[in-house]
Amino acid sequence: MANDDIRKSLKSDFKKYPPVLTVKQVCEIMELKPTRIYGMISRGELPKIEHCGRHIRVLKEDVITALISHKSNG
Question: pTM for this structure?
Answer without folding.
Answer: 0.85
